[in-house]
Fold these 4 entries.
Entry 1:
Amino acid sequence: MLFAFLLTGFYFTVATRFFQIRYFSLWIRQTLFSGSNPEGTDKEPENSMTRFQALCTSLAATIGTGNIAGVAAAIVAGGPGSLFWMWISAFFGMMTSYAEKLLGHCYRRRREDGSYCGGAMMTMEFGLGSRPMGMLYALLCLPVSFGMGNMVQVNAIAQSAEASLRISPLFTAAVLIPALIFCLKQNSTGIGRLNAVLVPVMSVVYMTGAFLILWIGRRQLPAALDLVRDDIFSWRAISVGVARGVFSNEAGLGTSVIAHAQSDVTEPAEQGMWGILEVFLDTIVMCTVTGLVLLVTGICGTSHDGAVLTMDAFASVFGPFGRHLISLSILLFAFSTLVGWSFFGMECVRYIDSPWLSRIYPVIYIAMILPGCFWPMQTVWRLSDLCNALLAIPNLLSLFLLRKQVIYLTNLYLDSKL
């Protein structure tokens, strides 16, 4: 399955003539420096997310605790060289994400209230003419939202709160349930506004601490990079690094297309560029910083628990405050994933168009907080990984079948801009 992820990204990288490198300045300019309402957005975006809100909503679901604990666990399991292979998988994943978002933009639809709806399931229905394929994808999204999107994240919050602040899991559940109920009552623009605040705040909190550690330990950075270089060609590093990179940014799963389809961007290729940025920020930036912090502090391998490793790394520089900082980061990262996946799940339910499911899904999603606080997560992770693989199959197939449209629209856009 990992080979299919890499092959898809490799194809779009070659077919677009290494778009993510050759046009680096273009996609950076059209994303980070595009402004609040640049040319290429709708004139009346009140009922849709802005491009930044769509990015934050997508990042809210993809960043999660994996960028803190998952990277540490990858280095323990795969060695320092796994970090290099995370970069490789992210490099190709950028173009998979680009293709997903471009197609999602092409086949999105407007609702009666003026808001957009879209996602990989709508690409399958309107791009391939297969509603059953879209229905299958939407149905598979639901168990993934309960597992990876909910229970795994809630468990991380409960464990970190108990370890750092001695807060009982039951109290954690009592706080999370009303907070999630509030978020579920928001429409897409409300969730977009919430994530536009939450994602930058949580990123700044965590990255500030991480960059301080790297600055303090800057003399150890060359040695840390040597560790990565010397371990590149071990099979363990390759397998673990590629797997961690693929599942870190979710490129190939198609789930984040749901958020990007809500954006006010009118040009499909430009929406695809936001997909490139998403993978870049999630893996090239966030995961790299976490990995270097672990290598610079020299504590990787002291524990098999990723969250504990990262806490130890921060505590080695900041003392007890470092543990509290990681606990706060896990809380923000995990809750943002909880909110992001609730939105993805509700959009899939709306696509399925079942009144009964529309009523029962929010209840089940909220109820999953309780077992998430108490149950061991190994089984949930295995089931989530299985659902992820099943989810990727129809999505990667649709990307392959619509590959010529991706290339055509990309070339058309470049001809008009260059």
Entry 2:
Amino acid sequence: MRYRSIEKIFALIVLLSSGVYIYNVRVMSRRCNAGILRCNFALWLKEKTLFYERIQRSHADVMSLDATVATAAGTTAGTTRAGTTAGTTRAGTTRAGTTARAAGTRARAAGMRAGGSLPWDPDLREDEKLAAKEWLLARKKYNISFDKDDDYFRESNALADNCSASLRRVVGRKPLLQRVFDFNVPVLLRKGHFSPEEFDRLSKYRTPYGWKGMNMSDVEDAVDMLSHPECREMFTHRLQDGGGGGGGGRDAEKCVRCAVVGNGGILNGSMMGEEIDSHDYVFRVNGAITAGFERDVGNRTSFYFFSTNTMKNSMRAYRKFGFVHPPWSKETRYVFVPCGHQDYYMVTAAFRRALVNKGPDKKDKPWKYFGSDDVDRKFKMLHPDFLRYLKNNFLPSTRLQSKFKDIYRPSTGGIALLTALHTCDQVSAYGFITSTYKHFPDHYYDQKQKLVFYANHDLNFERILWKMLRKSQVMTLFQGKPPKKF
């Protein structure tokens, strides 16, 4: 009788969800037709359909996650109070205890089906637990397990851990984060990573996750250019021979503090510029405008992250705000996110001080964007395996199960932030999406444009990830002033 009641309740939930779903479709359609809301209706409808199809599975996942949290928190107390071993039922065991153990069994079974038991730490704070639960639930909804793709080149990347407050120590204390982070996947591509065997392996994956469709000699030419010690290491102070740039000469035993600056409107009026510039290194991306906004965003740029396409798009879109070329300074190093073949052609031409010799940027002049000095040492390129690992472990998305699967990738800002989390000891993020994004413009230098969600990124999923990492004390995230209506 009890099970029939549960079935009726769940059927009612599904029915109500269906009604809300149909209503939302009609309302969204009306708004789109009226031109009120900027949206990709086909994408929205596809995602809602996927969600509706999985409502039963998601419902079971929530129950499993809740049961796992309850089991982790109550195992010790329950065992001591009952005086029994796990899984033993006595006459004095309450109905609640029996139900809890049954729920725990279902949770463990669900965890095994998902690729292993869920690694809850009983010492997690409640807010941290809820943030991790939200991110895990999003992953489970997308049906992607941690170990689905493990085809990565790995090398020992054990840095001297002399920073007592290093985020790596935080990761080492938390089972969930241990499963997500893999510090042995190389961050930067360098000479020595290329071989015919590696080319064959990575030719299975499209850019930016591999070299599918590329000519072997073009890849080899680009990788061979990345031979200078500064091209192979993120930070110059970790090089034995020192080197130029803003980080040279720093104590290698000191905590490396990094500021990663997104371009979000939350930074307008923030007065965070001095704090940002006080870090050892400052990461920026795409339309990184500092002139006129120094009080809010600072003026230093240690690393500029971009793809050839995003850089040129930013120059076209934000020229009216003063972005005519990427940041230029003695400190600045340029980090390619190789999203297309043209990035390999561009980096080869930049090193050779020559015109781009093929592709959509043929006859382009790299020195227009990066200057002509120190070209042998100021370029870096992210490894395709590292980018695929970031996508698989941190930011899988429902886009991967839609018609947009071939254009989806984490945002350039998201890639820069995750790169910092794999290379720095302490990371502070500014200008990234938070739950209050509707109260701020898209960019700090444009007070009119609202944030637009495009099909090639999943900014809402990134928001959930940043929240989880902040709650887990892996990084800090600028939250902005109390929001006002935008």
Entry 3:
Amino acid sequence: MSMVVRAFWLILCAAGLALGTGCAKKVDRVTVDRIIARGMAYEDIDRLCAVGDALGIPMAGLGISQNALKAQVLANVSAALCLEPVVREAQIDGAIARRVLSGEQKVAAVLDARYREERAHTRAAYRYKQAWDALEAEYGPIGEACPRIRDADQLVFLMGLYAGLHGMLHDQAGGGHVGVSFDTLGKVARGTACIDNERLWHVPGAFKAAAWATLLYEDEGDPWAMLEAEAAAGEASGVRLARAVQVMILANADRTDALRDALQAHARSLEQTPTAPEWAAMDQYALDVSRHELDRLWAAAEGHRAPSFGALPGGAEEAGEGNGPFAADPFAGGDPFGGGEEATDGAEGSGDDAPPDSEE
């Protein structure tokens, strides 16, 4: 049965065309095991987020049953991914406006970008909070005693922790309208002990370090050093999500020098280690996160996005320094349309507008 057919069956079931807890259980398990989990093999993040967006409301309507809440975690996280490109575009627009505009145009463009960004942050925070709430409803308060987690559901728990971390960050960036508690970061950090760090590409360890870095908590060591160690270890798996977490937190903390190093490390890893095929969506998402932060650096410095992933502003690949589209005069070699001097002379001597080969 294809993913599309399964999704259609789920929507029919959730819409009430098939009733009972048996239907709900079937929908939930298929969502966890097939639609979302198998969707991780697809590089197209837009399609994955669209599936989550479509399933979010039907899943919420199924009520509480075995695994229903797990499916809601995945569906809401996937739906929240749809809003991240909106946030990114607003951030880039604002950075470019600051760099290239002036006067009233600059003020208006920067303010418009900021308001669009804040609205998207708030909507994303709301969806991530729904995922986090579903995680706690399924497993109990996160950060206390570790619950029993099936091997097949470790990804669900990881995505729930992701929702907690990102929900808080998005809410803070959007003005705090959703009300995601700052305490969520500590819960996420403690919850990472409940799942396998190595099996999950060192992402749990990166989440823990990111939470401690944001909270300025150093009782367990330097969180920035921990974050780099987890990012480097995760790259060998072919899923560079831990590196993307590091990039995001460094950017959030304005640690620009370390951010530049992390972005170049991500680029080197892509050359050295192929993507894990079954988790292509994870690796593509990680690339999207890092590419966006690189684009922000370029937009702030040069007024445009990065020419290639890994190229830093001020380096050899900077536009206008020998490799840019306007680095050389395109007309320096004569007629750019291939006429040369002979064709030009002929045209000047014709005395009319007829083409040189015309018999008129």
Entry 4:
Amino acid sequence: TRMEMNLAREWYLVGTPYCGNLEYVQARISE
């Protein structure tokens, strides 16, 4: 799993629907 930043400067997880701030994305990963 890798994270990238899109053009809107939002973090997203490659291969998942998760997008938003870093804390949100990390919280989704750890579930």
